[in-house]
Each structure stands twice: as C-alpha cells, then as structure tokens.
Amino acid sequence: MNQQFSYDIAHLIGATVLMAGFSLLYQRRLFAVLNSFAFQALALAAAAAWQAHVQDAPHLYFTAAIALLFKAIAVPFALHWLVERLGIHRAVETALSIGWTMIVGVALVALSIMLVLPVTAAAAALTRESLALAMSVVLLGMLMMITRRNAVTQVVGFMALENGLILAAVSAKGMPLVVEISIAFSVLVAMTLFGIFFFRIRERFDSLDVAYLESYRGDRS
Amino acid sequence: MLIAGALLSLPLLALFAVLVGRRDAAHSITYAGCFVASIALLAGGLTYLGGHDASPRLVLPLGLPWLKAHFRIDNLSALFMLMINLGAAAASAFAVGYSQHLPQRRRVTPFFPLFLLAMNLVLMADDAFIFLVSWEFMSLASWLMVVSDHTEEENRKAGNVYLIMAAFGTFCLLPAFGLMAGPGGDFTFDAMRIKDLGLMGGFLVALLAIMGAGSKAGLVPLHAWLPLAHPAAPSHVSALMSGVMTKVALYGMIRILLDLHGTLSWHWGAGLMLVGGITAVMGVLYAVLQDDLKTLLAYSTVENIGVAVIGLGLAIAFKGDGQTELAALALVASLYHMANHSVFKTLLFLGAGAVISATGHRSLTVLGGLLKRMPWTGTAFLVGAAAISALPPLNGFVSEWLILQSLFKGPAMPHWAMKFGVPVVGAFLALAAALAATCFVRAYGIAFLGRPRSTDAAQATEVSFGMRWSMVVLAVLCVVLGVIPVTVTDALSHAVQPLTGVQFAVSADLGWPWLSPVSATRGAYSGTILVMFGLALFAIAIFTVHRLGTQAIRRADPWDCGHPEDIPQTQYTSQSFAQPLRRAFGHTIFQARETVVMPEPGDDAPATHKVTMFDPIWSGLYAPLGRVIGWIADHVNRLQYLTVRGYLLMMFLTLVFMLLVVAVRQQL
Amino acid sequence: MSLDALIIALSDNPLLLILAIPLASAGFLAVLPGWRLASWLNIAVSGATFAASLSLFSHRPPDTRLLFIDDFNIYLVALTTFVGFTTAIFSAGYIAREADSARLSDLHLRFYHSMYQAFLFTMLLALTANNTGVMWVAVEAATLTTVLMVSLYRTREAIEAAWKYFILCSVGIGLALFGTTLVYLAAQPVMGDGADAMAWTLLIKQAARFHPDLLNLAFVFLLVGYGTKVGLAPLHAWLPDAHAEGPTPISAVLSGLLLNVALYALLRFKMLISANPDTLAPGPLMILMGLSSLFLSGFMLYRRGDIKRLFAYSSIEHMGLITFAFGMGGPLANFAGLLHMTMHSLTKSGIFFAVGAITQNGGTKRLNEIRGLTVSHPVLGWTFAIAVLAIAGLPPMGVFMSEFLVVSSTFARQPLLAIPLIIALLVAFAALIMRLQAMIFGAPPPMPRHAHGQQTTFGTVLAYTPLLLHVGLVVVAGLYLPAPLVRWFEHVAKLLG
Amino acid sequence: MNAMIWQVLQIILVVALAPLITGYVRWVKARLNGRRGPSPIQPYRDLYRLLQKEAIVAHSASWIFRAAPYVTFASVWLAACIVPTFTTNMVLAPAADLIALVALLAVGRFWTALAGMDVGTAFGGLGASREMLIASLAEPAMLMVTFSLSLISGTTAPGQIVAFVLAGNVGVEVSLGLALAALVMVAIAENGRIPIDNPATHLELTMVHEAMVLEYSGRHLAMIEAASMVRLTLFIALIATLFAPWGIAQPGAGPLGVLVGMGAFLAKTFLLASALAVFETSIAKMRVFRYADFLGGALLLGLLATIFLYVSEAV
C-alpha cells in the first residue's frame, strides 16, 4: 500500500479525534460528554494502532491498547459510576455559552494550523497535519477545562488535552518512550479520579464543583 | 599596615561585643578598641595625605571572581579618612561612658565597629563592587543601630524609611556604575576613568549619582529618612551618622562626578548648586521650628549638606567651564565645610547625648538652665553652636566665607543661567546662614540658659570624664580650624589638585595668616589677625571699664520689667520663640496655623494654643507614593483568590498570547 | 536499545549510585515502621547521596544515552543533594516536634519519609537524564510526589492546595510534553529516529541544523509548561498555597530545589534554541515573564498574612529575576542567573528552616502574631534576620552579588528594561523589610503553652544547625566564590548564549 | 608704619565719636519735635554715670550674662575698625572684608540674644526671638548688598571697593541705587531705629532690642549702650564710605590727605545723622509682624541689585 494512502488514513483518524474534541465542547449533558470522550479515546486508539502499523513500531500497539482499555472503557465507566454514586446533577454547567465555545474552538484550530503547517514543511510529511490536529486537540481540551464548571467535565477536558498529546507523540515518527509517557498520563488520570472519589468519601465537600472546593483560596489576611 | 591592622581589629571587636555583651565592661572595652582603631586610621590618613602621588593599592581575591577586590588610598580618600575617623574617635571615646547607661546597648555595641569598618572601606574601595558592598553594608550596620531601641513604634518606622531609602540610593548608584563599566563589566575605577560615556550616558550617570549619593547625604527632597533615622539612634551613633556618614555620601558624589565621570558640563554644576541652595534653606527652616533637640540637629545637618553641595556644584560648574582655578577654590571651600561640619555636628550630637543622659529628655520644652549644672557640656555646646552659626573666628565662618567668595565669582561664567542663578543661590545661602544662627540661639537659649523647666533638668549633673573631654577636644578643634585657615586649605588642596588639575594656593603677596583666594585685592580674611585684635579690644574694654567704674556686683532676683514671676513656665518656650519665624516663613511653606482658644470671663477652663503644621515634602511626595503602592497591591492581591478555572484561564491566555507572538514574528 | 544503554551505564558510575540510593531507600522507608528510626535513616541516606555526589567532582562519569554530567548539572546535582541532606536534618527535628503535637500519624510519617526520598530521586533523575523524555517523566513524577506530600496534613486547606497544585502542574506538564515532542520532531530529520534525537549531548551538537520555526513553537510550549513549574507569573498560582500548606521541610525543598530543576529543564532547551542561529530570540518572552513575576510578587508581598506564603511569593520574585537575567543573556547576566539560582536555593531553604522553627515555637503562621523574635529567640531571630536581609539583596550576602550583576549589566545594555526591574526590586525590598522588622522587633507575644522555645531541646538543635549552615554559606559566598564553580558558571553562561 | 598709626587713630575715633553721633541724632529729633532736648554730649555723661553704678545680676544668670556685654562691644568695635572712615590705608583692612563685617555684627547679636534668654524672663525671650527674626532677614540682605558691590567692583574688601569707585570706573548704576536702598533698610533694622524699633520706648509690645537687655544695669548696660552707639556709627560710616567715598584718603596720601579725609568723613557723618533724625521723626513704628515684609523687601532689593547688573549689561 502506498505512502499517500497511509497518510490520508492517519489524517482521517486524526481529524476524527479533533471532531470528537469539538463534540465534547458541544454536549450539554454529562453522560453525553462521557460518551463522546469514550469515542475520542477510541479514535485515538485507532490512530495509535494505525501509526504502529505504518511505522511498524510494535510498541505503539501497546499505547493503542492503553488508550482502548483504560481511556475508552475504564475511565468512562468509572466516571459514570462516580456521577451516579455521588449524585452529581447531570447537566453540564458552562461558564461560556456553547456557541461561543465553538467559535473560540474554531479560532484555536485556525491558529494551530497557521502555526504548524508552514513550520513542518520540512518535517516528515507524516507528521504535518497530524501535528496541527494534535495541537488543536490540546488547545480544545484546555478550552474545555476553562469553560466547563464541574469537576467531571474538567477531568474530561484534561484527558482530552492528554489525548492530543498522545496523538502528537504517536504521529511523531519513531519517537521513543511513547508507552512510558502514556502510562504516566494514565497514572495522572487515575490520581485525578482517585482524588475526586477520595475527597468525596471523606465527606468534606458537598458537590464536586471545583469552584466550591476553592472556597478557602488561602491566605485571608 | 597600620590601617590594615586597625580595619581587621574592628570585626573582631564586633565579635567580642556579641560574645561577652552581657558584661558591662565588654561595651567599654569595645568602644575603647574602636577609639584606638580610629586613631590608628586617623594616623594612616595623615600619612597618605602627604600629596605624594604613589597612592598605595591592594588587590584581594574577594568579591567578583574575575574582578577581585581593589583597594586604594589616594589623597581624596585620605582626606575623608581624616574627617571620618576624627568623628569616629570622638564618638567612641564618648560612648565608653555613654554606653554604660544605655537601654538596649547590646543591640548597638556589636554594630558600631562594623559601621566604622564599612565607612572606611567605602573610602578605600577602588572598584564599583567593593564600593557598593561597603556602601550598603554601611547602611545595614547603621540601620541596625537605628532600630536598636526597637520597642518604640516610631523607631521602627524610622528604620523602615531609612533602609528603604538606602536601597533606593543603592539602586541609583548601581546602574550608574553599570553604565560606566559598560556591557563588558569592567568595574574597576581605573577602567571607568578612561571610559568615555556619550552624551546620554554622561547625563544618566550624573543624574543617578546625584540621586543615589544625594539620598544618602540628605538632599531635599530625598532627605526624608534623615530626620527620622538620626534621632532614633543612640546619640553617639547619631553623631556618626550625621557628622560622618553624610560625608561618606558626599565623598561618593565627589568620587563619581569629579573623578570617575570625566566629562561633566557646567549644567550639572548649576543644577547641583541650585539643589544645594534649596536644601540649605529648607533644612534650616525645618530645623528652626523643631522642638526635639536631636531632630533639630538632624535637620541642621540637611542644611549644612546643602551648603557643602553648593560649593561642590560650583566646583563642577567651574570645572565644566574650564576655569580650574575657581573650581579648585570652590572645591576647597566645599571640602572645608564638610570637615567643619563633621567636627561641630559630631560635637553637637554628643552634647545632645550628654543632655539626654543627664536629664533623660530630648524635648527642648522640658529643658533649661543646663549651663549652670553642666558647665563643660554647656560651654562645649556653645562653641559648637557658634561655629555652626558661622560666627568668626570659628571654623564654620571660614568655610561659609570661602563658599560665598567662590559664589561671588560664579557670575564670571559666560552663561546667563549662572549669572542669574548664582545670586539666587547666594540669597539662599545667606538666608540659611542667618537662620542657622537663629536656630541655634533658640536651641541653646532654651536648653542651656534660663531657668530649668522640669525637675529632671533641675537635677541634671555634669557627665563623666570621657564624655566631657571628647566634647571639649572637638570644641577646641572648632576654634583651631577657624583660626589657622590657611594651613587647612593647604592640606585640602592636596586632595583637590588631582580632581581639578590645579593646586589651590592663597595669593603669596599677603603671606601665611591671610586667606586671600585668587588675588589679594579680591578680599581676604585672616582669622588669626582678627582673633588677636579682637582679644586685644576685649581686654581694653574690660580694663577701661573696670578702671573708670566700680567692679561691684549685686546678685538679685530678676527685675523682669517690674513684675517678676518665679514660675519657670513664664519663660519663653521653644514654641513661643519660634512663633515670629513660624509666622514669617512657616505660614506659606508648612501651612502653619495657630488656633488660640480663650475661655469666656468666669469660665475657669485653661486657655489653649495649638499649632498645626504639615510637611510639604512628606505629604506631597512620600505619602502619595505609599498610597499608590497600597492601591496597586490591593488590586493585584485579588489574584490570590481566583478559582482553579481562573488560573487555568490565565495559563491558557498566556499560551495563546505567546503562540500569537510567535505566529506574528514568523510571518515577519 | 535502552537495555544496552543501561548495561553501559552500569559499569561503575557514581551517577547510578546517586540515583539508586534514594530510590532504594524510598522503597525501604515505605515499609519501615517507627518514624524516629526513619527520620535518622533519612538523614543517613541523604548524607550518603550527598557524599556520592561529591565524588563527581573528582572524576566525571562518561556520558551515556541515559545519564550524563556536564558543567551545568554537576553543581545542581551537588546543590540538590546538599540541600536534600540539610533538609533531612531539619526535617528530623521538625518531624519530632510535629509528632509530639500529634498532627501526623505513624503511617503518614512513614509515607512522608518514603516520598521524600522518592522526590529526591525524581529530581536527581531529571537533572542527570540525558533524554528529554526521561527528564519529562522525572519532572512529572516529582510533581506527583510533592502533591502527595503537600496534602499530607489532610486539612481542608492542604487538600485544596494540593488539588490546585495537581491540576495546574498536570496541565503545565502536558504542554511541556507537547513542546518536547516538537523538539523531537525538529531533531528527528537531522538525527534520525529514536533516542538519539532526544539525547542532550547529541542534540546540542546538531542544534544548528534543526528546523528553527519548529524550535520557536516548541519553546513557547516549554516555556508555558515548565514555566508553570518554575512558578512564573501568571502561571504561579499553585506555588504559594503549595508552599504554605505542606510541611515546612517540603516548602524548603520546593523552593530550594524543585523550582531550580524546572528552570534547569527550561534552560537546557534554551541552549538548543540559542545554539541555532535562525531561531527567534527567546529572550523577550523570558524577560516579559520575569518582569511580570517580579511585579506581581512584589506587590503581593504587601498583603500577605501568612509567613510561608510571604516567602513563597518571594520565591516567585526571585525566579522572575533569574528568568529575567537569562532572558537578557550575555556572559554577565547568565553568570548572575546561575549564581542567583544557587544563592536563592541556599538562602530560601534556610529561610524556610527558620520559618519552620518559628511557626513551631509560636504555634502560628500568621504574620501579625509573630513579634519580637530577636527578643524571644535571639539565635533564631538574628539568623532569620540575616537570611531575610540576604534574600532582600543586601550585602555582604551572595544574593547581592548576582543582583548587582543583573542590574548593572542590564542598565549598561538596555536602560529602559532596567528601570522597571529596579522599580520592581525596590517594591519587593520595601515589603520584605517592613515584614522583617515587624517580625524580629517589638515586644514578643506571650508564649503559647505547646511552645518549647526557650529550652534548647535536641529537636531545636537539629532544626537550627542546617539553618546556620546555609546562612554561613551564603555570607561566605557573598565575599568569595570558589574557582571551579566560577569556571563552570562561565562555561555554562557561554552555552546559554 | 602709617597704616598702623591710622589704624589706631580709627580705633579710637569710632569709639570716641559714637556717643556724640547718637546724642546729635537725639538732639536733632528733639528740635524737630519742638523740644530743646538734651545736649548732644549727654550720652557721654550717661555712659559715665552707668559705669559708676553697681551691676545687678539675677540669681538665675550664668556667666554668659556677664560676658555678653563685653563680647558684644568688642565685636562691634572690631567691626567698626574695619570700615574705612577717613582713610583706606589701615593694617586691619585685609584681615576682614564685608562678609566678615556682617559676621562680626552677627557675633554681637548672637551674644546679646543669648544674654537676653539667660535670666529666664518672658521679656528676654521675647526680645531675643524678635531680634533673631529681624537678623535672619537683615543679614542676608546685607550680604546681597555685598554681593552686588563685589560684582561691580570685583572685590569684597571695602578699601578696594572705595579705590575702585574713586578710580571712576563706576557710573550711576541702577543696581547701586538698589543696593543703597537695601543697605539703608538694613541699617535701620540693625540699629533698632523707627520704624522697626524704637530705642526710646519700654512698651513691651513694641520693643525688641530693649527687651533683650532689660535685665542689664550698671557697667554692663553701659557696654550694651556703647555697643549700639558704635554700631550706628559703623553703619553711617559704611554707607558714607561705600556710596560716597569722595574725599577719603587712599594709601600713599600724606597727612594732609588724611586730614581732608577726616573732614569729609565728619561732614558726611553728621549729614547722614541729620537725615536719619528727619526720617525717624517723619514716620511711625510698624507692627512687629510687618518686619518680615519690610526686611524681605530689603533682601529682594539686594537680589534685584545683583540681577540688574546683567540686565544693564544685556541691554
């Protein structure tokens, strides 16, 4: 199979991840957010697997596996369970209206493309669009963390950001340590979930709205 | 060798004072050691003032690794070493007795030797780094002594203002040196001398040097810390800070402006001269209205610094205009005044210290009649007061006479700014001199004459031997420096010659006792002759009077226009003495307002008289600055209380901003 | 591939020892019951690490694909192990008194000691790693360990601080990873696939041929990412609370070491950028962030009511100054920056030692309840005063030297840049001095009952020794710098461009 | 040698002449008021009588109180010896110039003011504080006059100024006029004449100089009185010498020239004394707190005098 085809597939999958990122921003209901996150993770897994196949770098399959099992399945379920266990109300609390969020998101994508495409002219063609896509996914994830109020959505935003990073890593030809990195991130995510759950069972906070959690905010002088 | 030994002994003394500070003897021993060390340094300074150009150098592997620490004693340094260590010796001798009944003395004694060390190092430093380190260390050591009596709220405030202003000064000098050293960073003074700063560079260096050294010397409006800090310290330290440390500051100014900074235009001299004039007048106006003796002395320091700076400014102006003869004259005048001030201001502060230790009071309103109870202190203080009031034949007059002489030559410069500026500055100077006399008549008359206004003053007793004699020696020095002016100017001209290029010399056709700058016909002064004739006339007067008339004396109650009151409170107080001046000067400058409340007839409430004044510089410059900082701080402080989301937003915006920057710069 | 690298490295290499000791002891301490023994063991182990790091001076191990030592990280390794050692001593005394006040359970303490060693390990790994990715992983691991230690007290404030710290730094770390990937992409066409394109020792040689625009883009992400960890405003938010709420030894190592490590990472990348002639100068961005940190922290200092937050903000200020210096570049400024890194970590950790003693003596962290230290605890009070004066930039302490170099060289080159710098420094100076005077002078408050201030217990001795050590070093360094240190600094300054 | 002789002559002259001038002024004033008035030599008698009386010193007084009269007198006397009256050829001439002259007067004032506060009475302090207020403005004014004179003639030594003027290099200058006006105002203030002070009053609200010396009696008072008489002579001589030096003997002039100088001096002196008397009788005393305006005016005139030099140069 020829090079160009493989690139196109890679870019197709990358674009899917980005679309999933947008759909994350678009959702109004918590469970829908979780589902579209699961979908993004799935797409990421596919991308990783495809890169593993194209660059015939077997260790990337492992990354793909992590993405599939941990992110696409375990984490969404865990969050589902959390939301029900903690009785978090199911609507997404937005700080910025969804319409505006989308517009900003588009602007961010434009920015990253404007930045990356001229830059990577020299770099291996494989990485060209993928990098732009990955960067946009990162920025979108951050945007989500900023514009969504409650903790679950913020965690999801964080994981989306991280998906972008993994996407960039896997599409960087021959980059070592991708596996270790994705494991490290999985640890981070695990800790986040653990933290949320942990605070809850300590009966310290009534809701998971992080803003509420900051009610102290240090140093009242 | 002598100098090195003395310098090394100082930190050891500090250590000693720290370790055994519990014992009374330790303090006396430390101060005695300081006395010996400063005498040694004095001697060292004398040996190097000889004017031989082989000034000793020393390089130690300290400080900046590639720079090392350079030390050098040239004539200027030697001269200032004389001034500094003279005052230091007197203060140390005074402190031997004074420190015994000093509260918190354990917070003073250890830092005193370090203070001396720092001041001497500033004079010997031959590269910018060592200079600034010693300079700042000097502030640090003196700050610790200013806040020694730390339980007093205002002392802590004084400490704050002092240290912050000191840092301001350093942060002015630092860039100045940076500019002179250049990007390469060769910080040795030798390298700076040969460097040619451009027009802009020269401008900045001069400005920063004047601001930096000026803030330490107490030029208006950067003087604010001085009247707070100097009184707060124990008197022997105040004596050093006022009489001596300000000279170190002026040394810095001279070193940078006249030695390192090769290319000064006369404009800077003119500007500096004007600042000096304003400083002199403002300082004395503040001083004449003070009630606290030490605050009064501190403000009078501001005045004298102003006077010295007038001379300095003139010297720079003349030099910039190429008239080196006159430059030498003005510089000699300025240095003469610095030397004088270091003598009599030290004396006066020590006198104040003696008064405090005898009565426990600083406020004039509770003093009075001390001359009869403390004859030595009183007489010494009188000499100091007369000297600082520029009365012949004492030293204060000679230097003011020289400054006026050089000022009168100012219009000889072909610049209209000078032609019109000099007379104005002259008026300032004259006003300052006259007001200084008023100020010290008031201070002395209220504190030492009349009848005691409080029991503490009534029960005052003369201070101990060492304190007494340290004052007397200084008083004698006031007379000597005034009576043999030519000898002094010869000594000074050693230091002046390398800076102005010409040797200052009195005109030969009159000879030794006559101080006649430029030429004999331009006006001359001879303290020696004047004193001889004066004494002769004095003797004649007494003789003839006692010949023609009786010698009978009858002691009686004061007549007081027929209705004497033996209540001491009926005397003029410091406030009432100041009233005419307050009306004449304070009304506009200090917004001085008097409110008198007279009770109705039959009402037995006491009548009250209240004076309200406000400090234009503090409330016009410093207070607003503080308010601005507070306002900004309040608004910045909100950032402490955002939510995680808020912080993420800040992060996000930073990222996007930088990405945009890169995007734009890549397109260009 | 990484396997044979490991094998090469295993042939006697003190670096491995330096890394192995803390790693192993982290595991061991995790299972060791009884905090007294643990704290002593902690000291011993850290001491051993320090000794091992000293052996680096005698002969440098050869560079491997995994680890390497050069003029830049050798003194940072020494510094890290040294401060780790002194902090371990301090922490022994601190922990003893904490345990008396029964704020921490045995389990917590065991966890604490284990995490302490793990933290040292991660930092040393980050410093010595010859691989951008490994370094990244190490920094991230350092974040995790410290998060756990910050939340040690389990109070509401501690957990909130930890949460804030965790979220912000995770995002920052993420961005840093993206930057790392970009650097790899820039290097990959030149160096080929694989670990070579991530090895510092090889990258720096080839950096001139990398794609400049890609490096620019990478540097932005790295600056924001590692900058968060350095605590540059406006990315600083985690720093004050993390310092304030964690145990004081942790605050000491956070300020003294972690910030340095993050800055080290940033500077390594800056070397690559400046080794490449076609890149945009990173200076302006760093200067911008440095100034913003200086101003923000300078004004923040005025409104602080908590002693640990006060000095946390002063850390931000100094990180800003250092970043500014490196942003200016040039031999003088870079030298000053390196010197300032060292001086700041020594001084600031010393200050936190003092703060720990102060808070334990007085039983409060509130500034307005801390009075008259020089009266109530003369030794502690005066040493603390010297340390604070040093950090405020007064001679003859070392910080003055670096500030002198920064300000003078900046003014000589860019007077307009120097003016805001000077203003910010003055503002911060004034704030610190006011606070200091309020703390060390005046009449001391009556002693709370659980304060064992006056009688010098063994714990207080343990707490004071490292403090005196640090202050002594700083004072000496202000007057005299050892020649080899200067040589390294000058060499690194040249590399930093 | 001559210089020595003339100097001694001058020393004696100023003291001998002073009471006569004061008495003459009083006599003329009395005549202008339509009284017969005491004879001009009355001051001699007064002084002698005072010398005979015993001096009364308050218990609270210190040695300053007793030293002050002599110091004051000596300093004023010394100052008077410096001002060239009939010849400029005197040994003391180079020893002190106009600046020193001002300072010597300040010495006298300093001591009188201290003496006034020494006894510790309300009046003494009142007098001292007012005296010092006046001085703090009069002294600068006089220095400014010196300044402008030295700018014109290039020297501060009175003898040299005289020589310069007589050499005829000075025309009628605006600044000279201003300086003269300033000097006259200063002279009035320094000698405590109307409108600043009234030497004849003892009304506490208005008196300045008298309030200071209220406690003095006997020979001390005599010294004080003599000092003020000499001071008046000094100022008259100063004005006469600096602004109308004609007839004064230059160095190298023989005894005849000196004789001429003496005559000219006496003529000028009594002329000015009469003028003073006329002036005093024709105006009233001003309020204490208007002094500042009056003397501030003097200072301003002095300043203008210097500035005008350049204005006249420029145009």
Structural class, from helix and strand content of chain B? mainly alpha
Arithmetic mean of pLDDT of chain B: 90
What does the radius of gyration of chain A come to?
Answer: 18 Å
Shape of chain A: globular
Estimated helix fraction of chain B: 55-70%
Low-pLDDT stretches of chain A are 201-216
Biggest pleated-sheet summary of chain B: 2 strands, antiparallel
SSE order of chain B: HHEEHHHHHHHHHHHHHHHHHHHEHEEHH
Estimate the global geometry of chain B from the Cα principal axes: globular
Q: What spatial order of strands do you see in the largest sheet of chain B?
A: 1-2
Describe it:
- The complex is a heterotetramer of chains A (221), B (668), C (497) and D (315).
- Chain A has helices at residues 3-26, 30-54, 59-86, 98-119, 127-147, 151-171, 178-201, 210-213.
- With 221 residues, chain A is mostly helical.
- Chain A has one domain (3-209).
- The radius of gyration of chain A is 18 Å and the shape is globular.
- Chain B is mainly alpha-helical and 668 residues long.
- In chain B, helix 13 runs antiparallel to helix 16.
- Chain B is 69% helix and 3% strand.
- In chain B, the strands form two sheets. Chain B has a two-stranded antiparallel sheet.
- Chain D has one domain (2-314).
- Chain D contains eleven helices and one strand; from the N terminus they run ααβααααααααα.
- In chain D, helix 1 (2-33) crosses helix 3, helix 2 packs antiparallel against helix 9 (218-243) and helix 4 (98-118) runs antiparallel to helix 5.
- The interface between B and D is large, with 87 and 93 residues.
Short synopsis of the structure:
The complex is a heterotetramer of chains A (221), B (668), C (497) and D (315). Chain B has 668 residues and is mainly alpha-helical.
Task: Walk me through the topology.
The complex is a heterotetramer of chains A (221), B (668), C (497) and D (315).
Chain A: H1 3-26, H2 30-54, H3 59-86, H4 98-119, H5 127-147, H6 151-171, H7 178-201, H8 210-213
Chain B: H1 2-19, H2 24-48, E1 57-60, E2 69-72, H3 75-98, H4 111-124, H5 128-146, H6 153-181, H7 189-194, H8 199-217, H9 226-232, H10 235-260, H11 266-288, H12 293-320, H13 324-359, H14 370-373, H15 375-388, H16 395-409, H17 416-448, H18 455-458, H19 465-483, H20 485-500, H21 527-548, E3 553-556, H22 574-589, E4 593-597, E5 608-612, H23 616-637, H24 644-667
Antiparallel strand pairs in B: 1-2, 4-5
Helix pairs in contact in B: 1-2, 1-4, 2-3, 3-4, 3-10, 3-13, 3-19, 3-20, 4-5, 4-10, 5-6, 5-10, 6-8, 6-9, 8-10, 9-10, 9-12, 10-12, 10-13, 11-12, 11-17, 12-13, 12-16, 12-17, 13-15, 13-16, 13-19, 13-20, 15-17, 15-19, 16-17, 16-19
Chain D: H1 2-33, H2 42-52, E1 55-58, H3 63-82, H4 98-118, H5 122-153, H6 158-166, H7 174-190, H8 209-212, H9 218-243, H10 255-282, H11 291-314
Helix pairs in contact in D: 1-3, 1-9, 1-10, 2-9, 3-4, 3-9, 4-5, 5-7, 5-11, 7-9, 7-11, 9-10
